[in-house]
Amino acid sequence: MKSKYKLIALTMILVLCIFVFSGCESNGNSIEYGKASGTIEDTTAQAQVAGKLANNQPTPTDINYSLERYNLIRRTYWVNGQREKANMLICPVEKPLGYIVIFAGNTVAGRFVVDGKVSSLNSFLTPSSIDTYYANGGVITTEMADVDGSYGENDNGIFFFTPNGNYIEWTGEYLYSDIPFEIENPIVKVVSE
């Protein structure tokens, strides 16, 4: 049954590609569309390869618990003054431990053990907007409030929790791994000629 839907989706992608490229100017055997160019055969082959890979390596459907959503729920409690609730939140799966080094320029700003995973500050539990489509072709996008009632975007960065329940937010560069590692403060040397 899933293969049938994937075949239908692949066919729709191919039809869409042909529709999009049929309005482009043709220059011999290549198609010019903006800055990208290629042959119809290349585009069709690429869509077929993508469909084949999706069939051979389907999206996992047996994930029953999301550590990303766990982090987001825990952060929501934490940043809204409910730290005890954040630290009491039970995770039914075994959380991995990770190791992170954060940098400020070319200096190590900190090293931490990560309880679970590192998450983006721009991950959300709910959609940030909803599109309403009308029969006349119009679309209205409605911005949605986050779970804390606020609107807008967060800083580009990450957050994580340490094993003792501390919350860390970082907007700079970092190195993350599932193995412990040591980094001496990096030194940048500029050699003039």
Descriptive overview:
The chain is α+β, with helices and mostly antiparallel strands. It has two domains: 55 residues, no CATH class; 111 residues, no CATH class. The chain contains four helices and eleven strands; from the N terminus they run αβββαααββββββββ. The protein has a three-stranded antiparallel β-sheet. Helix 1 runs antiparallel to helix 2. It is extended, with a radius of gyration of 24 Å.
Tell me the distance between the termini. Answer: 66 Å
Number of strands: 11
SSE order: HEEEHHHEEEEEEEE
Poorly predicted tracts of residues: 23-35
Number of helices: 4
* Strand residues, percent: 25-35%
Assembly annotation: single chain
Summed over residues and divided by their number, the pLDDT gives a mean of 80
Globular, elongated, flat, extended or rod-shaped: what is the shape?
extended
Largest sheet: 3 strands, antiparallel
State Rg.
24 Å
Output the structural class.
alpha+beta
Write down the domain tally.
2
Fraction of helical residues: 25-40%
Q: Looking across the biggest beta sheet, what order are the strands in? A: 1-2-3
Key descriptive features of the protein:
three-stranded antiparallel sheet, 4 helices, 30% helix
Task: Describe the structure concisely for a colleague.
The chain has helices spanning 2-22, 40-56, 67-79, 83-88, and strands at residues 25-27, 30-33, 36-38, 97-104, 107-115, 119-120, 129-133, 139-143, 158-161, 167-170, 173-177.
